[in-house]
Structures are given as C-alpha cells and as structure tokens.
Amino acid sequence: MADTKQLVIVNAGTSDPSTTRLLADRATTKTLAEAERRGIAMEARVIDLRPLAGDITAALTTQLVSAELERASEILRDADAIIAATPVYKAAASGLFTSFFQVLDNDLLIGTPVLLAATAGSPRHSLVVDDQLRGFFSYLRTVTAPTSLVSSPEDWNSSEFGKRVDRAATELMALVAGGFRENARGEGWEAYQHSYGSAGGTELGINLDSDLMRLAAGGR
Q1: Whole-model pTM?
Q2: Domains plus CATH for the chain?
Q3: What phi, psi does 149 have (nearest 5°)?
Q4: Would you indicate the residue range of the signal peptide (predicted)?
Q5: How far is it, in rounded angstroms, from Cα 37 to Cα 117?
Q6: Which of 60, 108, 132, 202 is the most exposed place for a label (fewest CB within 10 A)?
C-alpha cells in the first residue's frame, strides 16, 4: 500500500543471537503496536550491519559503494522512522554502527524520526547515547525521540525499563504522526545546506550549461 509507513531497524549487533537485535525487536514490537493504535499502517524492515561490514569498510577507504550497501541506503531513504541500535564497546558506540552512517549521503535522513538504542554490559555506559549519538544524529539532521534506550543485563526483566520502551515507541510514533519528516523535506528543503549530487542534484539550482561548468568538464 502506498500509504504504508516504513519503519527501518538498523542493527549493529554482531553476535547470533544478539542482545542488540533483541532490544531492537522489542522496540519494534512496541512501535508497531503504537502505530496500530493510532490507525497508522506500518511495516518493519531490518538492516543487519554484520554482513555489510566489508562493504562499509570499502566505502570508507575507496568511496566505492557496493550494490548491497546501495540497497541499504535506498531502504533508509524511504524510511518514515528508524530504530538505530548499537552495542557499546569501551564506552563508545560500535565502530561498525558509526561507520555505516558515515558512508551515507549527507541529505539521506533529513527530518527522519529516530529512536536511539544501545546495549551495554554495565549501567556505567548509560550516557553513551545521549552524550555521543544524539550529536551525531543531529549532524545527520534527523530528529531523535527524547527517550533513548540503553539496556544492561539487569534491565531485561525490569518493569521500569519496559515502561521506558513504551515511552520511546510512543514518542517515535508521535513524530511520525505529526508529519515532521514530510514538512521538513517539503517546505523547508531548500533552506538546508546540501552537498552537490546528494538527492541526485535535484535540490540544487546550478546551471550545468554555464561557461564555468563547461570549463570544469573539460570544455565540453
């Protein structure tokens, strides 16, 4: 259906089974339930980063994007909301996770609502999302749900953590229902600073037939 919203889950967990994937699935279940409660048709698609690790590294070092990485980019381009989940290693988000978002086009996620989630071995890492990832996703010009999810082993059976998952899912769907992404990309699109060629160049009023541009192309 054309009006079905797309929820995309980015999972940076590398083990199988992965607690990061389990957290993402838990948030996904609540988000889809909240969408149904609001009468919004929504389907979920998952991007697992583990199989893309080699492609992500190649894109960072050679700027060559594989077909698989391009498909992941296209899925994210059409996302109405994202659940981005990463494990925490040594008080920082996974390098695989951050590298994936670093190779994406700068304009790809403008205005997209994002729920940030992380798994850690200790509550000591609970500020990693708010301290590190919010700024990162702000640079990507997304809008993050106020409630983030950071789970350590003792949280899995905690009723308080369950309430936090509920709250995060509600906030994410409120952003979707409010149409923030559509409004930001509609009326406000030209107000953003774009890189040439991002979104296919369609957002730029550049005259490709000018003398300067012909000179840059070798005089043709």
Answers
A1: 0.83
A2: 5-187 (3.40.50.360)
A3: -120, 115
A4: none
A5: 23
A6: 202
